[in-house]
Structures are given as structure tokens and as C-alpha cells.
Amino acid sequence: MQITGTFIDEISHDIPHQNWGAEEWDTDFAHMKAMGIDTVILIRCGYQQFLTYPSNYLIKEYNCFAPPVDLVQLYLELADKYGMTFYFGTYDSGEYWKTGDMRHEIDVNLHVIEEVYDSYGHYKSFGGWYLSLELSRKTKGAVTSIAQLGAKCKAVSKGLPVLISPWIDGKKAVMASNNELTKDSGISLKEHEEEWDEIFEGIKGSVDVVAFQDGHVDYTDLEGYLKLNKKLADKHGLQSWTNSESFDRDMPIKFLPIKWEKLLLKLNAAKRAGCEKAITFEFSHFMSPQSAYKQAGHLYNRYMESPLARHRRGTE
Amino acid sequence: MQITGTFIDEISHDIPHQNWGAEEWDTDFAHMKAMGIDTVILIRCGYQQFLTYPSNYLIKEYNCFAPPVDLVQLYLELADKYGMTFYFGTYDSGEYWKTGDMRHEIDVNLHVIEEVYDSYGHYKSFGGWYLSLELSRKTKGAVTSIAQLGAKCKAVSKGLPVLISPWIDGKKAVMASNNELTKDSGISLKEHEEEWDEIFEGIKGSVDVVAFQDGHVDYTDLEGYLKLNKKLADKHGLQSWTNSESFDRDMPIKFLPIKWEKLLLKLNAAKRAGCEKAITFEFSHFMSPQSAYKQAGHLYNRYMESPLARHRRGTE
Amino acid sequence: MQITGTFIDEISHDIPHQNWGAEEWDTDFAHMKAMGIDTVILIRCGYQQFLTYPSNYLIKEYNCFAPPVDLVQLYLELADKYGMTFYFGTYDSGEYWKTGDMRHEIDVNLHVIEEVYDSYGHYKSFGGWYLSLELSRKTKGAVTSIAQLGAKCKAVSKGLPVLISPWIDGKKAVMASNNELTKDSGISLKEHEEEWDEIFEGIKGSVDVVAFQDGHVDYTDLEGYLKLNKKLADKHGLQSWTNSESFDRDMPIKFLPIKWEKLLLKLNAAKRAGCEKAITFEFSHFMSPQSAYKQAGHLYNRYMESPLARHRRGTE
């Protein structure tokens, strides 16, 4: 299963910034392209007061800072140049992470979605929306929020696809600020099925693609979850992608690139589960030859030597 | 607001060593010079048993280790070579961090100050003193200690300037060994004013420059503190510099280079507040093109492309 | 005291992987050789479900994953090529770390030892065994386990030497997942002597070499422990090596390369204590010029410039 999409983690919650300029981003898109990536997904357009684009609305209403560069424009131009599809990630005020209630984020994003499509919707590569509010089973107001925001995205953009990337409440679902790497108990497959069946029922029509994060469960348990997610997605008419994390959740440094063998295991499990597409969080820190983490460049090399990439080259 | 000074973080509390030799330090001073840095400040001359110079006094009386290289001599030679001013940072036995009582550090430093000026005072670049005991409002014995040590520095060196760099007890004032990035409550502007008015009253005459660390309060609150610090410094006849931290306090890896946008915001706030000079903690790990953290080199490039550096070049 | 051996940390507990391929490993062995390393020690052949070699036994009985590369074969070929001795590290199911009872690991390893010697014992460089179960004084079942596994190793391989590398229960003996860097109290020299005298009595005959980890006690206390360990080893007919850690235990990032001065201090203490050999944990992350941690390459340079390496060159 080849990786054909990646998040772009600007603005970051917990991954230190690389301080790249336009030149480094251009080089990075070229590396992505060489690896077979055709889809880039902005993880969020803003977090708290930091923004990726000079939003009049957010600067005025939310006291956000005017950014030194318009990254949304830069990414769209690069996606145009390299023939990729760009998904726009919505705003995250930070409130949701404190309260666990996603409804805080609805109103602001209804405005952002309009503003952004007005400003950037004309780019050829503007091809979808990513609802950046990461949900899991216990997220208050998730169904309402996702349904309402997804519907808005589709309404303003003549039906462009909407992507979400929830997490499984598995044993590795701990906060980055938490010292521990695991918690005692994760959700069972049965609970996961019941709860997500209900969630999917509530959001279908507003969302097109669900790409579960693949790093919160044990490597041996992953395939079971991927298959179940695929079954549920099929039932509700959603596409099932895998969001294959390229950072390592098993190490005390939070976070450095994942061991190649682990990524390979996860991608093989996704293939067996029938996922339609594999994306990763994320290329530029964890798989790029120019990453500040040198392990990322080696991961890129291992990937490029592997049958996954050989298959890609064979089909070009 | 241009950065014209930097700390040199040898011996380090919490930043891993780069293991540089004389050649790498020479290159680093050249990078600093190219960026407009005219002042280097040794963060401390020793911490617990590790020393930057072969102090007879500390080796004999405090059981310190004889260092493999005399870094104080090396830095002074390089400062001479590159036409910079060197500030000598006093000794930190480590006791103060355990007890919170700064008076432990007075006696040892009265000896160190004499020994050091005897050995190194003749260097052209030896231009000031840095009292390495980082204080905040609740530090026991701070006023006595700072006043006494500052007076001693001036007495032995015919009045060379004395610098301190306190921290604001803001919401990000947590220990590096603490997992959390913030605490629930920080000091209010009003409390800060009252307490520092009193502290400045007690240390004036012994101290010339106060450079508050700028990383412990929210980005939006910083300007208020900088302005208040400037007002208080003016009232007591002190210079007000900003110590603009070039590492990121908002990330779970403690610590990697700061995002360029954040540094820029802080420097702009310091300019508006009327700070006389901006220094940073610190160039060699967090802004240097040869740093082990590649993000640092990119931060350097962003800085050099910015109006801050353009202004510098224009005035040469 | 020159470093002439290193662990190879694949599979890792807590050090992020570098994602090297065969080419990088070949280069790394060349760097090791240039530094005077003649012994490489596989830290463990597998951890939980991840393996370094395609073990039929572990894949079938323990549900382990078939690895993408046979690292044991690769390392043996490189050790043959560079004229080094290879020590094979036993399997760690992970159970021991949860329960503190080492007896879980006996049965599985009795099988692994046989399987491995059958498959790889013919390599010229296959020269010893490393019992990967790190013990300290309170490890349940340690004496039984070590004695039984060591005897098995010797029986299958016609007496090849067996190495263990315990830790001293000093003040820095805290888990990597623990935020704190130290605990309040460590073992006293007297307790250490009594307890290890008893342990050595129980394992002698099954073990040839004891290489205590040197990073869990204060730099000033280390020499006392090294001397005591040497005395106890002599008494029981064991060799006493030092396992001189090349990562820094004093920093909040767990873990980056150690400061050169600290490594030098520890090696000098080991020399004074009369250790027969110094090995390190470990070269590839923390001392290699091609490490992802650039500080490691500088540590290599400092080491190569030092009298330790000059002595080596002088005796060639």
C-alpha cells in the first residue's frame, strides 16, 4: 500500500517548527512528488492565535496574529505546480482541547470556510476540506459539529470532498504532554463498532472520507480495527483511508520518525483491510530527506527501496 | 529590533552539549558576527562540579572537576578576534535550585569574581559581568545576594557593567523537568510592578542592566510586561534589555529552536516597549547554521532575510 | 582507557531508530574500526514482537513479526569483514520489565540460544553471548535466570564467553519514561558490596564478564563503585569491564549524546579502577559521525583528538 497523501503540519500543536522558507517548501513538494504523493492536507489553518493565512476575520474577531507569510497561498501554488490536490484544514481555537466540547469551534469555522473559499477557491489544486477537529468516541458535540461544518464546506464549494481523521481510543491514546506512553485500557473492538456506527450514521452526507489515525493501538491489533473501520465506512457510504503515522509513539522523545519496519507493518495491514488510500502524518518532519530529523531521510530511502515504491515506479 | 547579544550556554543546566572544539566555536563566533552580534555572555562559569575554566579555588574548595579546555580563555580570545564584548557569568553551585535561597551562592562567588578578574581581566573584550543566579519574585535572599555580588564585580573591575536576567513568574514558568508546559496562574501585571519596584530599589547601584527572559508569558501579554519593565528600569536608573528566547517553550521536546514567527513577534514587542538592546538565549543551539538542530540554521536564514537584518546591513 | 567495544541498539527500548540500511551499517562499522572498536554486542535479538532475525521459533511460538532484514546476519558479515568479535544478545519478551521477574525469560531464551547458534554459530566473528536481561539488586529470579542461560550459552557454543551488564541502583536509576532525572536515595557502597558478592557467587561459572553501566551514580562516586566491582569480580573469577554510557542522563531530552568531558571523566575513573576493557552504549546513535544526532559526530572528533585515541594510534 503506497502512501499517496500527507498532512502538512503548519500550525503545529506539538511538533517543533522547521522554520522553512518558500525554497525549502518547494524542495519538499518535489520530494513528496518523487515518492508518489498526490494529495496534501493542511492540518489546520490556525491554532489559537497563530495563522497560516492573513485571515481578516480571525485577526479582527479572534485577536489572531497576522502571519509573516501566507502559507495557504504558498501551498496552493506548489500544489498547482506539482499537480497535487490540496485539502484545506479548518481553524482550531484551542478551546476544544480544554473543554472536550467541539461545539465551540462551529461558529468560527462557518466564517473561516466562507472566507477561505472566497480567497483561495479559484486555485486549480483546491480540491477538498479537512475538518481539523480530531474526534474520538467521547468528544462532546462531535456529530453535530462535524455534520454542520462538513455541510457548509460542501455548500460553499459545490460539493468538494470532506475528510476527517479521528483517533481510536486505544491503549496508546495518551496526550503528548503525558509522560506515559500507554494507558491501562483501550476501547474494545465491540465498543468501537457500536459507537462509530452511530457516529457515522450522524455525519454521513456531510463527510466523504474517514482516515483513522493508525498509531493508538498495538501493531497486532491494528488490522482488526482497520477492517472494522472499512466495514463501517462501506455501510455508511464513506471512503476509508488510513492515516499512517510516520512518527514513533513508543519512544520517550515525543516525537521522532518511526522505525521503517513499523510503518511497513501498518501499511501492509491497511492493504489487507482494503483501505482506498494511505496518507501520513506527516512527510515534512518524519519522511523528508531535508527534515531536521536525519532519521526521516533514511526512512524515505527505505521506503523508496521497498516494493511499495517499486510498484509505483512500475505503473508510471 | 535586532539581536545584538547572545548567551553562551556552557555549562548547561538542561540543553544537551554539542561537543564543539575550538574550531567550531571560532566558526560560531563568525556566524554571530555576521548576524550583528557584538556581545557574548557566558551563562555561568560553572555548575555544580563542572567548570568552564580551571579555577584553583573551585577545584580545591568545592571539589570541582578540572575541565579539559579553558573555555573562558577561548571565548575571550574569540571575542577579542571578532571585536565583541564578553560578559562573565558567575558560578552556580546548584544549591540555590534545591533550596530557593540565593544566599548560598554569595560567598563562593565573592572568591570567583576576584580570581577571574585577576586571571582574565586583562583581555580587551572582558567588558561586563552577568550574575547567573536567575531570580524571580519569590527568590529568598535575592536582593541581598544580587546587591552584594554586583557591588563586588564593580569594585574589582573599576565599574564594569553588571547584568541580570530574571524571569517573569508567568504561566509558562515551569521547570524543564516538569512535563506540563504551563501552570494555572501567573503573576498579574500589578503584582509584578509592586514586587519588582521593590527589588530594583534594593539592587540599583549594584546592577546596570536588567534583561527579563521573554518566554514565560503569553505572546499577547508580553508587550505589557516589557513596557512595565522598561518603566521600572527607567525609574531606578537601570537599562532595560530583552532576553528574547530562541527556543520553543510550547513543545513537548524540551527544547528545540523556536518558530521564526514567535521570535519576530517578541522582538517587535520589545521594540515597541523601547528596550535598549535585544539579546538571546541562545545562538549556538537555537540560531546557529552549524547547530545540531537543523531548525536553528533555518531560523538564522529567516532572521537574515528579515527587515531586522536588512536594517543592520543598511547601517553598516 | 580506550573504548574497544560497543552495543548495537537494534531492537531499541527507548532510543528512536535511525532507519539505516546495509550501506549505513557498513559505514558505521568502518567508523567503529577507525576508533579502535574490536567488539560489537547486539543489545537484544528481539523485544516484544520485533525481531532482528527471522526466528522460526519466535515467530511461531511468540507471534513475533518477521523482520524485513536479517540484522544478525548483516552484523556478523560486517564483523567478519572488519575483524571484530560479535556478541549475540538474547531475547526480551517485555514481560520482565512489567513484573520485575526475570524467570519469564528463561524458557524462551533456552530455545533462542539453540536456534541462533545453529543458524549463525559458523560465522568467524560469532565470539560470545550477551544476556540482555538487565539486572539490578532487586531483580527477582536474576541469579537463577542468569546462571541457567549462561550455562546454556556455553554448552551450545563450546564455552564462548558470556557477558552481562547490570546497573547500579544509584540515584540516577530512574525509568526513561519518568520525568525526573534522579531519585532521592541510591544504594550505599556497603549494600552494593554485600548484594553483588552474593549475586556473583550464584552466577560464576555461567558468566565470564560483568560490565556495569556507569551512568546511574554521581560522577564523583563512580570510581568507588568501579573499584568495588573490580574487587568483587576478581574474587569470583570474573572479568570486570566498564559499560561507559555515551548518552547524557542529566538532560530533559531522553536521550542525546553525552558531553565529552563527562565521558572522559568516566573512562579515566575506569582506568584507575583497573577495568579490563571499556565498551559503550552505544556508538551508532551517540558517537558516530553519521548519527542523526550531530553532537555524536563532534563527540567522535573530541574522542579521536584525545590522548585515548592517540595512545591507540601509537600502539598500532
Task: Give a topology summary.
The structure is a homotrimer of 316-residue chains.
Chain A: E1 3-8, H1 22-35, E2 39-42, E3 46-47, E4 50-51, H2 56-61, H3 71-81, E5 85-89, E6 91-92, H4 95-99, H5 106-120, E7 126-130, H6 142-156, E8 162-164, H7 189-203, E9 209-213, H8 219-235, E10 239-245, H9 260-273, E11 277-281, H10 283-286, H11 294-305, H12 307-314
Parallel strand pairs in A: 1-2, 1-11, 2-5, 3-6, 5-7, 7-8, 8-9, 9-10, 10-11
Antiparallel strand pairs in A: 3-4
Descriptive report:
Chains A, B, C: This is DUF4434 domain-containing protein. Chains A, B, C: It comes from Maribacter chungangensis. Chains A, B, C: It holds the Pfam family DUF4434. Chains A, B, C: Residues 3-293 form the DUF4434 domain. The structure is a homotrimer of 316-residue chains. Chain A is α/β, with parallel strands linked by helices and 316 residues long. Chain A contains twelve helices and eleven strands. The first copy, chain A, has helices at 22-35, 56-61, 71-81, 95-99, 106-120, 142-156, 189-203, 219-235, 260-273, 283-286, 294-305, 307-314; strands at residues 3-8, 39-42, 46-47, 50-51, 85-89, 91-92, 126-130, 162-164, 209-213, 239-245, 277-281. In chain A, strands 1-2-5-7-8-9-10-11 form an eight-stranded parallel beta barrel, surrounded by four helices. In chain A, strands 4-3-6 form a three-stranded mixed sheet. In chain A, a hairpin with a 2-residue loop joins strand 3 and strand 4. In chain A, helix 8 (219-235) packs parallel to helix 9. Chain A is globular. The model of chain A has no long low-confidence stretch (mean pLDDT 94). Chains in contact: A-B, A-C, B-C. Chains A and B meet through loops of A and helix 9 and helix 11 of B.
